[in-house]
Structure formats: C-alpha cells, structure tokens
C-alpha cells in the first residue's frame, strides 16, 4: 500500500488569517495521524505565510508517523532541517515568493549544489527525496547527487488528467510519468509523488505507477475535508491508495 502523508500547510494558512491559534495545527497533525495518515508533510516557505519555522520545531516531538519537511535548501532551511531531523526532507527548487511549487530540479545544472546539500542531510541520518518533473533525462542526476527518492511533480498530470476525461487519446503525458518512475526504480531510487493530487486523479496514478511509495497531499484534501470531514476524507484518500 502506498503511504499517505498529509500536507498541513493549508491549515496553517487558515490559522494565520486571524493571527490566533485556530485551527491548532499541532492538534491537526495529531488528529490526521489518528485518522489514518501515515505521515505529516510541511513546506515552510521563506515568508512563513503558512507553516512557520517554529511550527516545524513544535511538530517534531508530536509527530509519531513519518515527518517530511519540504523546501528549497537555503541556509535557513538547512539549519532548521538539521536541527529538527525529520525522517525525510524533500528538496524543492522553489524561488522565494512563488505562489506554489511549479517545477522539479534540473539535476544536471544543479548537480554539485544538490550533491553538497544531500550529503549534508544524509550525514545527519535524514532520507532525501528530490522534486522531479516527469523527465527521464533528470533521473540519473538525482541518483548521482545522492538522493534516496524522487518525488514526481504531479501538477501537470493533474491538469492533463482532468482534460483526458474528454480526450483520453491525448493523455500522452502519462507515459513520461511511467517512464520516469521506471527509469528511477531501475537504478534504485524510490518513488514519491505530489502536487494537485485529488480524489479523482489519485487512483489512476497509483494503479499505473506500482512503485509508488508515498504521496503527499494537502490542498485538495483540505478542500474535501470541508465537505466530508477530516477523518472521512483521510479514509477516502487512503482507499484510493490500496493495492
Ligand atoms: C512540493 C509541493 O508540491 C508542495 O509542497 C506544494 O507546493 C505545497 O505547497 P503550498 O501549500 O505552499 O502550495
Ligand atoms: N509534495 C506535495 C504536497 O505536499 C502537497 O501538494 P498539494 O496537494 O497541496 O498540491
């Protein structure tokens, strides 16, 4: 079964809208775990518009499943991750101020930078995943940089999946995801995926990428929780991830 890591960024967005502590994201994280989440993901951004650096520190002793911290490896981010020591760190090439993540790493151009960052994280015992587009040509660079896993950036998949309902013959893009996943697993990289996954598109992805270890899902899951409740929603997502 593929693991579900719940990204709790959007709960922090709601909390920050009023400046108080509602919802309490520490309680949210604990509740997600007790409702069945296999992990908790956070993506502290430089402007701290949702998850704050202090949230990450406060979450660490409470999270009993897998803690996954995502972000661009700036000096501040690296200090935080090395202090908190999550089970997994997912490196994302986001420039500061981007609305949301929108591409994977150029593992060729950033090879020596990634190698350096990844060796530092791995020396601290942290598993490293790197955010990658569905592009076979970037897979080898992920391996030589020292990553343990890749996280397939599924934003374009989600967009194409929605269109493919009316024009399934146009769903060529999915071959790129399959080829990238198989090329990665052939050289010993494990496969995560995330971004814009939802209750419509998750099952198809899971069924066609059998190596899928873990997905991290936030935005759509939080939107669904408004209608179905958090516990039901987590169970609905988990059902999509069954073998
Ligand atoms: C790497 C990735 O795809 C996620 O972290 C996603 O970008 C969520 O971040 P936001 O909640 O800031 O949009
Ligand atoms: N790594 C992807 C993630 O954590 C959540 O992305 P989204 O579901 O909020 O688009």
Automatic annotation (TrEMBL):
Among NCBIfam families, the record links this protein to: pdxJ, PRK05265.1-3, PRK05265.1-4
Could you say which residues are annotated as the site Transition state stabilizer? 151
Q: Where does 1-deoxy-D-xylulose 5-phosphate bind?
A: 45, 50, 100
Which GO-annotated molecular functions does the record name?
A: pyridoxine 5'-phosphate synthase activity
Q: Which family does it belong to?
A: Belongs to the PNP synthase family.
Among PANTHER family, the record links this protein to: PYRIDOXINE 5'-PHOSPHATE SYNTHASE
Q: What is its EC number?
A: 2.6.99.2
Q: State what protein this is by name.
A: Pyridoxine 5'-phosphate synthase
Q: How does it assemble?
A: Homooctamer; tetramer of dimers.
Query: What is this protein for, i.e. what is its function?
Result: Catalyzes the complicated ring closure reaction between the two acyclic compounds 1-deoxy-D-xylulose-5-phosphate (DXP) and 3-amino-2-oxopropyl phosphate (1-amino-acetone-3-phosphate or AAP) to form pyridoxine 5'-phosphate (PNP) and inorganic phosphate.
Coiled-coil annotated spans:
none
Cellular localization per UniProt = Cytoplasm
The taxonomy runs: Bacteria, Pseudomonadati, Bacteroidota, Chitinophagia, Chitinophagales
Q: Where is the active site?
A: 43, 70, 195
Q: Which UniProt keywords apply?
A: Cytoplasm, Pyridoxine biosynthesis, Transferase
Name the residues that bind 3-amino-2-oxopropyl phosphate. 7, 18, 196, 218-219
Which InterPro entries does the entry mention?
A: Aldolase_TIM, PyrdxlP_synth_PdxJ, Pyridoxine-5'_phos_synth
Q: Which reaction does it catalyse?
A: 3-amino-2-oxopropyl phosphate + 1-deoxy-D-xylulose 5-phosphate = pyridoxine 5'-phosphate + phosphate + 2 H2O + H(+)
The protein's annotated pathway = Cofactor biosynthesis; pyridoxine 5'-phosphate biosynthesis; pyridoxine 5'-phosphate from D-erythrose 4-phosphate: step 5/5
Q: Which organism is it from?
A: Chitinophaga pollutisoli
Q: Which HAMAP family match?
A: PdxJ (MF_00279)
